Amino acid sequence: MLLIPCPWCGPRDEIEFHYGGQAHVAYPDDPAALSDEEWARYLFFRDNPKGPFAERWSHSAGCRRWFNVVRDTATNEIHAVYRIGEPRPVIA
Amino acid sequence: MAERRSPLAGFAARFEAAGAGGRLRLAELPFLTQINVRVDPEGRAAGRIGRALGVPLPVEPGGAVRSGDLTVLWLGPDEWLVVGPDEGEDEGDARGPGLRDRLAETAAGTADDHVSVVDVSAQRTTLVVAGARSRDLLAHGCALDLHPRVFGPGRCAQTLLARAQVVLVAREADEFWVLCRASFAGYTAEWLLDAATEYVT
Ligand SMILES: [Zn+2]
């Protein structure tokens, strides 16, 4: 089980959290102007890196806040945790 | 008028029996008034609410502060739970406005802030888990570090106890409150009684 450091509550067991997929996927400025393919790309297409990945988590059984995590998808190492609205930290 | 019945009304005798060894005390504190407050902690409304409560809203995560018979629990960076004594079931009785109305009135004075004051008293009931073995008992189903150095009086946490969502409050050196959903209360009480078996005799 992962030990995920909630930016508010501190380290908690993974079972207290919900996963929210890739972070920093911007909502289209003008959704009505998108073609079907562009809309489908916004809805369904996500990065799938082997390595550091910025993703959203929600501390659903605790403070119920959403926040961002940079997690290595190959090792599960958590490189950084940061609050919504903060920029993605640079991972060396 | 319908008779009020707390979620754990049927457990009193078994709670009593679990305390027979003197190392544990289990009890329900039924019908506590619980008001959920959401407000920007840096706005003027938060200051007014703090003055009305007699203590500032705690901004440190997991902080629990007391003012008279009120306890203010940190639930999130803009969310608190104010817990007070049972105010009975009659609205607008001779005792004057209740805690919810007093807080709502205080908050309404600042039209430029967004404030939410909601009575959630019926959402959870409160269990007292106290005694020398209270930490050991809770630790059977809670992954948090409950050592007094980390989780002593003045601390609270929303977490899982035996997979049920609870608000855990450290009241005194060996006294905790477990606020759990009314619909989970029976399960939580059964789990506590089962986990307490080794400490009873
Ligand atoms: Zn949290």
Give your account of this protein's structure:
The complex is a heterodimer of chains A (92) and B (201). Chain A is 10% helix and 36% strand. Chain A contains 1 helix and 6 strands; from the N terminus they run E-E-E-H-E-E-E. In chain A, strand 4 and strand 5 form a beta hairpin. The two termini of chain A are 25 Å apart. Chain B folds into 2 domains: 99 residues, Gyrase A, domain 2; 87 residues, Heterotetrameric sarcosine oxidase (Alpha-Beta Plaits, 2-Layer Sandwich). Chain B is built from 6 helices and 10 strands; from the N terminus they run H-E-E-H-E-E-E-H-E-E-H-E-E-E-H-H. The interface between A and B is medium-sized, with 12 and 14 residues. The complex binds zinc ion. Zinc ion binds next to loops of chain A.
Topology (SSEs and partners):
The complex is a heterodimer of chains A (92) and B (201).
Chain A: E1 3-6, E2 10-13, E3 18-22, H1 36-44, E4 52-58, E5 66-72, E6 78-83
Antiparallel strand pairs in A: 1-2, 3-4, 4-5, 5-6
Chain B: H1 12-18, E1 25-29, E2 33-39, H2 44-53, E3 64-67, E4 70-76, E5 79-84, H3 99-108, E6 115-119, E7 124-130, H4 134-139, E8 156-161, E9 164-172, E10 175-181, H5 182-195, H6 197-200
Helix pairs in contact in B: 2-3
The complex binds zinc ion.
